[in-house]
Amino acid sequence: MVLESSSNVDTLKPRSNKKNNDVYIAVKLALLIVFLAILSKFFVIVNAGERGVVMQFGKVQEQVLGEGIHVIVPTVYNVKKLSVRVQKQEISAEASSKDLQDVFTDVALNWHIVPEEANAIFQEIGDEKEVIARIIDPAVEEVLKAVMAKYTAEEIITKRGEVKAAVDDYLTLRLVTYHIAVDDISLVHVHFSERFSEAVEAKQIAEQEAKRGEFLALKAAKQADAKVNLAKGEAEVQRLLRDNLTPELLERQAIEKWDGKLPLIIGDGGKNLLDLRKLVER
Question: Under a CB-based contact definition with an 8 Å cutoff, are residues 51 and 26 in contact?
Answer without folding.
Answer: no
